[in-house]
Design a protein that fits this description.
Elements lengths: L3 E6 L10 H8 L3 E5 H6 L8 E5 L4 H13 L3 E6 L8 H11 L8 E5 L4 H9 E2 L5 E5 L7 H13 L3 E5 L9 H12 L5 E6 L7 E6 L12 E5 L4 E6 L2 E7 L9
The structure holds S-adenosyl-L-homocysteine.
Length: 255
């Protein structure tokens, strides 16, 4: 049998937010590769399916391992949370292909998309991505904090809605607070900020506040932070979480 490798996005958590195509890729795999907790989400495997769980940090090694299995003829599924192309495994697989043995280029390699955290989080609160937006990972494992600061500043000056992935971790507890401090120098303190934890998982927690009042300590590694643009609005509701949305049309200065 010719080997194949599919990099699969399993979505934000709830099984019904995984696409049927992603489920089919997982069901058809002989070998499942991924970070343990993502593999756990898939439930029981068939007896013929092998599980290769690994740490979340060694992505390139995991990608090479998956490619080696596929070149032995296995049907491999590399599993990622959310979408596999967003701050996740798909880019690591292609980096391994580019730098690896030429024969890896002949493998049948596909990407199955998934609902990324930014979209799941947006849907939990309304329509904050209605206007132009960007996504920035605050993790400095693979890039410098100087680069992250430069991108945050550019995004703030361009008045994008900003989705922040990897807001902080135990190893780097201060980054989200520093990011908010930098954004406060450029954006009005009334700018709407939402922190959505475990979006699309059935255990969601939402905090809707402003840039002036937001507390970075309330976020963790399962939180997606959305910082509004000048066109982001909040609709308060009695006894219910507010809606947050961004106007699609341009808002005039001072309007
Ligand atoms: N490939 C993933 C993102 C990996 S980066 C995706 O497309 O969603 C990991 C970061 O994603 C986390 O630190 C967090 O900021 C965000 N994240 C992942 N799942 C989330 C969820 N269910 N709710 C909120 N944020 C989430």
């Amino acid at each position: 049998m010719t080997g194949a490798l599919t990099i699969v996005g399993v979505g934000p958590g709830r099984p019904d937010l995984m696409t049927p195509a992603a489920s089919a890729a997982i069901a058809g795999a002989t070998d499942l590769v991924g970070y343990g907790p993502y593999l756990d989400r898939l439930g029981a495997l068939r007896p013929q399916q092998r599980r290769h769980a690994s740490d979340n940090r060694v992505e390139l090694d995991r990608a090479r391992h998956a490619l080696a299995l596929a070149s032995e003829g296995k049907q491999v599924a590399v599993v990622s949370g959310g979408d596999p192309g967003v701050f996740a495994m798909a880019a690591a697989v292609f980096e391994a292909v580019e730098t690896g043995p030429t024969k890896w280029r002949d493998l049948d390699i596909r990407v199955e998309p998934g609902v990324t955290a930014m979209l799941a989080a947006a849907a939990e609160i309304g329509a904050p991505l209605g206007g132009d937006f960007c996504a920035i990972s605050l993790s400095d494992n693979l890039k410098s904090w100087t680069t992250i600061r430069r991108r945050l500043e550019a995004a703030a000056r361009a008045d994008f809605v900003i989705a922040l992935y990897n807001p902080l971790s135990k190893a780097r507890p201060h980054q989200l607070g520093e990011a908010f401090a930098l954004l406060r120098e450029i954006k009005p303190s009334a700018t709407i900020v939402a922190m959505v934890r475990a979006a699309g998982s059935g255990e969601v927690r939402r905090i809707t506040t402003t840039l002036g009042e937001v507390d970075a300590e309330k976020a963790d590694m399962r939180t997606l932070v959305l910082v509004g643009s000048s066109a982001t609005r909040l609709i308060a509701r009695e006894g219910k979480p507010p809606f947050v949305y961004t106007l699609r049309r341009e808002v005039e200065e001072g309007a």
